[in-house]
Write a structure and sequence with these properties.
alpha/beta, Rossmann fold, 7 strands
Length: about 250
């Protein structure tokens, strides 16, 4: 993968899948900007790990739901490096509740954090990348955005919207040579799944043809592929990373 001399912003890069994406891209030679909202210490730990492995990284704190802060952060990155080469929109939240009990503000909070923030990132990235006619964006959605899920109406709507929005951006960006793709992870082994009871884990695994949870590394490597020149003729696509759970 030819990433030499380029940079990337990973939103929500201080923990979980985002942290692994940051570390994987750092190992591939990218300068990684690690976004965090409240996890400054975690972001700094990811930065140090990337640097210890011979990579380059910076932390950049802002709330992706604050449009002005997001735009300002991208401006700071360009002022520092001269460009924004790649963007990974990974930050997101959940506020799970059965739809019949879900308040409108609980629905909109997830839409704003997951979908609206991704729109802002994609829009601003297209502006910046379009000037140099170089760049790629990967949005991290979810299998839930393809299947729906009881208790996650808001989350499913945000991730499903992200998938079709990515296709729209891909169509608008193609004349400038900018690519937009999305990955949809299934059940991935993270802190969220670690706390599940074994019988619940087993019930989930029974639905997965590969009979295991995925690893954050496997999502990160899919992201790296889609950003790279190996995927130079791929845009507007959804790469499923779910062990065959949704074929």
């Amino acid at each position: 993968m030819n990433f030499a001399g380029k940079n990337v912003l990973v939103t929500g890069g201080s923990r979980g899948i985002g942290a692994q994406i940051a570390k994987t891209l750092g190992a591939e030679g990218l300068k990684v900007w690690i976004n965090y909202r409240s996890g400054a210490e975690e972001a700094e730990a990811v930065k140090k790990e990337i640097e210890a492995a011979g990579g380059t990284a910076e932390t950049i704190g802002f709330d992706v739901t604050d449009e002005a802060a997001f735009v300002d952060a991208l401006k700071r990155i360009v002022e520092s490096d001269g460009e924004l080469s790649y963007l990974v929109n990974n930050a997101g939240i959940t506020k799970d509740k059965l739809a019949i009990r879900m308040k409108s503000e609980e629905f909109m909070a997830v839409i704003e954090a997951n979908l609206l923030s991704t729109f802002v990132g994609c829009r601003e990235a297209l502006k910046l990348m379009g000037k140099k006619r170089f760049g790629a964006v990967v949005n991290v959605a979810s299998i839930v955005g393809e299947t729906g899920n009881a208790g996650q109406t808001n989350y499913a709507a945000s991730k499903g919207g992200m998938i079709v929005m990515t296709k729209s951006f891909a169509q608008e960006a193609a004349p400038r040579g900018i690519r937009f793709n999305v990955v949809t992870p299934g059940f991935i082994a993270t802190e969220m799944t670690d706390v599940l009871k074994e019988e619940i884990k087993e019930s989930f695994i029974a639905k997965i043809p590969l009979a295991r949870f995925g690893e954050p590394r496997e999502v990160a490597e899919a992201v790296a592929f889609l950003l790279s020149d190996h995927a130079s003729y791929i845009t507007g696509e959804t790469l499923k990373v779910n062990g065959g759970m949704l074929m």
